[in-house]
Predict the 3D structure of the following.
Amino acid sequence: MTTNASKITIEFDDRIVRRFMIASIIWGIVGMLAGVFIASQLNFHQLNLASWLSFGRLRPLHTNAVIFAFVGNMMFSGIYYSTQRLCKARLASDLLSNIHFWGWQLIIVAAAITLPLGLTRGQEYAELIWPINIAVALIWVVFSVNFFWTLAKRNEPSLYVALWFYIATIITIAMLYIVNHLSIPTSWTHSYTIFAGVQNALVQWWYGHNAVAFFLTTPILGIMYYFLPKAVERPVYSYRLSIVHFWSLVFIYIWAGPHHLLNTALPKWLQMLGMFFSLMLWAPSWGGMLNGLLTLRGAWDKLRTDPVIKFFVAGVTFYGMSTFEGPLLSIRAVNALSHYSDWTIGHVHAGAMGWNGFMAAGMFYWLTPKLYGAKLHSTNWANFHFWIGTIGILIYVGSMWVSGIMQGLMLNATTPDGLALVYPNFIDTLTSIRAMMGFRIIGGTLYLAGMILMALNIWLTIRKGSPVNETREVAVIERAQRDTMGLKETFLNDPIACTFAGMLLVLAWLFLPPGADIAALVCALVFGFLAVKRFQSGHGRWSAWYDSLLHNWMPFTVLTFVAVALGGLIQIIPTVMVNRATNIEDRVQQPYTPLELAGRDIYVSEGCYNCHSQMIRTMLPDVLRYGDYSRLGESIYDHPFQWGSKRTGPDLAREGGKYPHSWHYDHMKDPRAISVGSNMPAYPHLFTEKFDQKTLRSRIAVMTRLGVPYPAMTDLEVKNMAIEQGIQIAKELEAQGRSGTLPDTKIVALIAYLQKLGKFDVPDLEGKLKGTPAGIPFPLKPGVPDGYRTSAVTK
Amino acid sequence: MYKRIIYDSALDWVPYLAFGITAAVFITFVYRAIKLKQTSADKLSRIPLDD
């Protein structure tokens, strides 16, 4: 590569790096403190001190704080530091950097306020309410513009592999976040997702799984590829392997989301697809881990003395271990045991504490002396942090493995004849893991202590030094030496045209009606033949196009987008385009009455889904314990779906009608009065607070717009219907000896909802064949197409 | 359309199609990685150390 002769001295914007680093440490401690607190609540129910301090509301705060505040700020810190060095250019805009930083912190503060107040969307890692969702999207755009603008003005023609991982992070998270958060607001603080039931489940876990992949993994891999070689002062072991690592990981990861829904009502072909791609992830993940570890070739002696290397090596090792465990848990047979249990919790904490947390610590210990021009206050403290953190992780993860496997085995144990459960009482399985829950607190506390020690160590280092912005003399390269491909060159070429046309024809083959699909298949085959011929005649041009990826961010970004969009398209388009009335497995959920809907919103707001699933899997022990397995049609009106991912308490899919109202009344007041040994919080506030009547009509209206078959109702009719049902429940409670219950209290609405769970209509075969009869019956019967329902929207 | 995807045996080949696409992508990038000149690979890998 030739550069022109002019050289300039640039000053990197390291202030933004310092800010994100400090924010990461502070929010990390907050998030982990919340984690230790909720782990303690699992053992000591008395710690559910108030409604806003209950487990169901604080658990989302913990997960969001660790993922988006701790790892998010760490990621931005690492990306901004390394991108400037890899591009030999200062960040494009100080203004955008500042908007990014303060915007992100405001989002975190907003989340920290709204989540304890019970303002939530009710989907894991996607709980934040819609105004915050919009803020996240806008700030992400600011980050993207700042990043790509910096790439466009860089003084290094080549794009180092770390930048590839950052590009993949930016475009994929934007795509995932926007699609999964598509909602219709009912008020300033509440909305319903546009997806329901199985659609919602699939989109949510496409997002949820890939939030792990592209928020917690790819940016940290980019950081590994930059900071690990810097720390050991030698280049990455194999650059070729890093190329294969990147493309394999990015392409395969996006398909694996359905492994969160194994053995559920999700169509089996999607389950198999998720399992299949999860298993394939073993290869790129371990390729990346080995590439990281082998970078230390000839420098292993530093492991004994340098805490930075200790953290990096342990972090990369945890990456390898948790990415081995992930595919293992995605095998359907293993998942039958592990799903809904603490094993999964142990797995994610091995990744978050071991991989993310240790990579963050290594990076911060390496960065602080450089950012503040002072020697680290205490290497011994850093070493102590490493050991206390490692022991903490091992205690935590080990206890969760034991707990998960033990409870999974107990819950799935049947008598030799297979006709009965060995442990029919759920509480017995909970009691048996209480000791493991205790170890969980100890492990978490040790890890948190290490984090606090790091904060102190870095704080004392900062006090010794002063902020330093690195300056460097760089050779300015001409525009013609980087990003030589504009829009025209990027899109109008054989490789891109053939890829897009091929994808289009294959999708047409999949989705067009009979006849047209065959035509599309023939076209695809002919086109494939022509593409091969064109490749043979212009092989050089195709190679040159690929080589241009190493020096042009735009075609690189396009190709990455194609890679990540493909898996999502094939899984999600068929599910989202489904006509729900024809995809019900012969059961149709009964729509919720206004009071039941209000109760459902309370269920979501209190975070009940954090401990209770609503999905009876297609497994004998599940059916013996909870009843007939769940069908697709039984959650088609659930916006959002509440299938859950963890059973600290039993499944509730068929809870309706199982117990009298008084049972639920007493259980919510004092769970231990009904279930000795339960660790469920009591909910006294539900007995005094009123359910929301003000926005009830707008909630019904939004549900109707989303295809739920409500008849047209006025505001008054909605309220009357709710109160009449409330009065009925209050009367029944009185008859059961629970007098004095007001019909407009939250407990009444919640009881109404719980008693509705599992209610469905059996389809009428004749109706299914005939289609929709004149007029819209209420409740709607099967056979009515979705499009027809739009006419029922409340005016 | 979706009903067909759930119930028809035609869907049995979707994982094979997905695997085929993935294998093609993987082979393509392994090939491109192998074809990368050693000098280019060395130069690229040293970018972080080029202070």
Observations:
- Helices of chain B lie at 2-7, 14-35, 38-45.
- The radius of gyration of chain B is 20 Å.
